[in-house]
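Key idea: predict the complex, not the pieces.
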Amino acid sequence: MTRLRLGVALATLVLASALVGPWLMPHDPIRPDYGARYEAPSARHWFGTDGLGRDVLARSLAGGRVSLSIALGATLAALSIGLVAGLAAAAWRGLTDIVLTRAFDALLAFPGFLLVLLLVSALGGGVWQSLLALAVAGSPLYFRLVRAFTQAELKRDYVLAGAALGASRGRLLLRHALPNFVGALAVQAASTAATFVLVEASLSYLGLGVALPTPSWGNVLQDARSYLTRQPWAAVGPGLVLACAALALQFLSDGWRDTLDRRA
Amino acid sequence: MLRLALTQVLSVLVAVVATLTVVFFAVRALPGDAAVILGGLETQTEQVEALRGELGLDLPLSVQYVRYWADLLRGDLGTSLRERRPVGEMLRERLWVTLSLAGLAFSLALVSGLTVGLLAGRRTGTTGDGVALGLTTVGLTLPEFWLGFLLILLFSVQLGWFPLIGLPVEGDLGVRLWHLILPAVTLAVPRAAQIARLARVRLLEEASADYVRTARSKGVSPRALTRHVAANALPGLLPLLALELGGLLTGTIVVEQVFGLPGLGSTLLGAIAARDYPVVQGVAVLAVLVYVLVNWLADVLQMLADPRLRYE
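Result:
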């Protein structure tokens, strides 16, 4: 229970800072200020300034908006793809099932990060491209989960009873089977979002994801790497916020699972 | 058992062929033109055309695809467009960096992850277990490259114990190993956390099984009980270990970049930037093969360790 509360509190804080933070900041996250380069944290610049004199806190918050949008959007997209395909495979069986299962299995033959890397290179980098690449790479897991859960539910007596009473297949799937495992999907989705936050940061760090000047946690840290020994503060702040975001989502996932387990 | 293993080999082969096909076409779908990039901005159209012919890039894709398989089956990974030398030779030069880094990181992760997981799993509900659980969650969510930054700042800049970046190509093995310690620790932390978390959960699940209660009621010593529980719980870790180990060949990319190591990862990134198709394909082939093989091996090992799985 404590983990769930901690996760909710931390996630709210991170989301709120990314949503509202950039409006409250008096500093521009992109425009250079050559008079204020390499400053240590102070009352004016809480996280210090970077190599171009920009406020590191302002850049962390602005970067969070981009990075979190990609991670959360990609999680939602991966979940949706997996959900639709998984329900279809379990409900229609036969050829649909075989084709879908083979297709998603082929994606699983790649080491996860390599798949994202190749996809994002082929698509050409950027916000939407990163989102799409992560969604495709994340979807097989949800396909497998949804397919297995649905198959198990469809075998149970209440589905037979529902069918005997004349419920349509769509109603049986969406109103009766789905609610029984939607909690487990949510637990997994929070964990996936935590991973995606980290993977998106890695992509942008390698220069393949979101490109400068649009700040994202990854490319802000890539920039900080080039003068790491001269101005460590430029790397400390954004990394801390990034780690907090991933931690919040993982706590959310763990806490959620605990409450579901206790109820079961 | 044998039939099951063979069926798996077959499905693995299908997966590998499908994967390499996807990589072949995906790489050629990369925006940009290898011949133009290779020639530079100043090249004339005729020169680019000549270059394209020389590299075989003017042939229809289907012909290129058949040629690719013919070469691959003879063990030829092709020739780098940029460096004009065999891809196999390039990869062999870089492979040892990535392999030693991955091996070191995996051993670290395995030993520390299992230790923490087993200790925490035996004492659930205690403060120690709570602390271990919290630490593993933090370890799991630390961005790899940022952890690398922190280690560099602390151990290389402040304390001066380790070199800043890079790796000497030649010289004493001990010195070279020294350069790999910080990168290996960086890679090991999230993986150790993952292993510890799963080991703990597996132990907990197994400890609530009926046979454990029966054994305890019959007076089996806690030590002997732990041995039984561990023997049943630990093979369940094999799939995760395989995923981690198999993924390390390309999982090192980010860390190689942070620490300036000349491994497979930096080769792949450079090749993607230069649209050096044969090199991208070469690295992908290697990574996918290792990944699929390690996962298959883990399945077989798990079946050997757990007779229940053989009869499905």
